[in-house]
Design a protein that fits this description.
flavoprotein; 7-stranded mixed beta sheet; FAD/NAD-bd_sf; single chain; alpha/beta; FAD; binds flavin-adenine dinucleotide; FAD/NAD(P)-binding domain; 9 helices; 24 strands; 21% helix; FAD/NAD-binding_dom; oxidoreductase activity
Length: 410
């Protein structure tokens, strides 16, 4: 059904940044039709928001059907369709379902996708949305050994949760979790990796992530769901093929040199005693010279901003990490196009105590602030960079220990 719509505000993306932005605009302009265009059938909503201190906040995230938002804001319309085309100069946005929107202001909140070490290798998996988490679970259930690459939040959570499967964890740093905590805290956490699962169950009190009671998102492959968050594995049994509990072996200060399929490995000229490594579906050669056979590799090495649908025919300035560069009003280099969340990169000179990290908290803060900037620009009112960008702070949980942190001065 093709149709043209004139709208003042349109937001792209049903993740935390997009939903927060849409809710804020809808509450500031309660009689304006606001459109939220999203590729995923469920939207992420922030609930139980608590301001713990001036900069620390705690909240729950729920994945809900879009009607929940529409019931709360009568003039907020959620359209489940991906953006096909953006013509920024003409202020025109076209959705896959044929609808065309002529907007005054648009905010792009399309998130990121896993930065895979190697593209198109059947034995390399990334974890991003419910679909990929389920694929991981399926493969894990038959696996005896996996190799996990990366030292961020996803890798930390994963190595701790996996049972019944040996984990080789390769990190490029001297200590685990160094983007979140110092080497002393890392040493404190290491024994938790060896503890039996039953001994680990401390009460967990922190931001929770829940999915819609209907069973959550189950898009067809190729559809892009929202990024998961803490507790993404809740309700998914992360159990390998072995009866005994898992062992985690950490390889420090190394990266992946090469990943081979079994056939490639056998034909390779590697000077390793191949027969000693056993027969595995895949082999990983690390930069420290070691080679491990495994069932598959989890590439948990961050995300790439999901900018592809918007670049063609437009003139966006991109940052070094390929995010849409935004100024201190969350404006991209294209007029009336704003961006927030994982898709964007802060282009202003940051305070010494703030750094961008692609996390829930910042997606929410950016979505909220982008909406306030769009509103201020429409109303021709001044607006200053929000205080939340003065000091980086985050509450989360590592190995079942609640942790809150602030930025270190760099
Ligand atoms: P997303 O949540 O990715 O939402 C993007 C939205 O855009 C989706 O709705 C998608 O369908 C839509 N979209 C994409 N392309 C199009 C298009 N062309 N047209 C229309 N819509 C489109 N953060 C933490 O703070 N703590 C954690 O413990 C944590 N754990 C994580 C664990 C995992 C496994 C992952 C993947 C991420 C984790 N994160 C965590 C990061 C956090 O989830 C993200 O930073 C945050 O969700 C980003 O929100 P966003 O709204 O920018 O993007």
């Amino acid at each position: 059904m093709a149709s043209d719509k004139q709208v003042r505000f349109i937001i792209v993306g049903g993740g935390i940044a997009g939903v927060t932005c849409a809710e804020q605009i809808a509450s500031q302009f309660p009689s304006d039709e606001v459109y939220l265009l999203t590729a995923s059938p469920l939207v992420k909503t922030v609930t139980n928001f608590k301001q713990v201190s001036k900069t620390l906040e705690e909240f729950d995230i729920e994945e809900q059907p879009s009607r929940v938002l529409e019931e709360k804001y009568p003039y907020l319309k959620v359209v489940q369709s991906a953006v096909k085309l953006l013509r920024a100069k003409e202020h025109l946005l076209q959705a896959e379902n044929g609808q065309t929107f002529h907007y005054k202001k648009v905010c792009l909140c399309s998130g990121g996708r896993p930065k895979l070490l190697i593209q198109d290798k059947p034995h390399v998996l990334g974890i991003r949305d419910t679909d990929s988490a389920q694929e991981f679970q399926k493969r894990l259930s038959k696996a005896k050994r996996i190799v996990v690459i990366g030292n961020g939040g996803i890798a930390l959570e994963l190595v701790y949760e996996v049972e019944g499967c040996e984990v080789i964890w390769a990190i490029k740093d001297k200590a685990i979790g160094n983007t979140f905590f110092d080497a002393g805290a890392a040493q404190f956490l290491i024994p938790s990796l060896e503890a039996e699962k039953k001994d680990r169950s401390l009460p967990c009190k922190r931001s929770r992530y829940t999915t819609d009671k209907t069973g959550g998102y189950s898009g067809t492959s190729g559809e892009l769901g929202s990024a998961l968050g803490p507790d993404w594995h809740e309700g998914i049994e992360l159990k390998g093929a072995e009866q005994s509990s898992s062992g985690v072996h950490i390889e420090y200060e190394c990266e992946v040199d090469e990943i081979f399929t079994q056939q490639e490995f056998l034909q390779s000229k590697l000077r390793t005693k191949k027969s000693e490594l056993g027969m595995w579906p895949a082999y990983v050669q690390l930069t420290n010279g070691k080679v491990y056979g495994c069932d598959f590799v989890v590439s948990a090495t961050g995300v790439v901003p999901n900018t592809d649908p918007f670049l063609h025919g437009n003139n966006f300035e991109l940052a070094a990490d390929h995010g849409l560069r935004v100024d201190d009003h969350m404006r991209t280099s294209e007029q009336d196009v704003y961006a927030a969340g994982d898709v964007c990169t802060a282009g202003w000179k940051p305070s010494a105590l703030w750094q961008q990290m692609r996390l829930w908290t910042q997606a929410r803060q950016m979505g909220w602030y982008a909406a306030r900037c769009m509103a201020a620009d429409v109303l021709e009112e001044p607006i200053e960079l929000d205080f939340c960008f003065e000091l980086f702070s985050h509450i989360t949980k590592f190995f079942n220990y609640k942790a809150s942190g602030f930025a270190r001065q760099v």
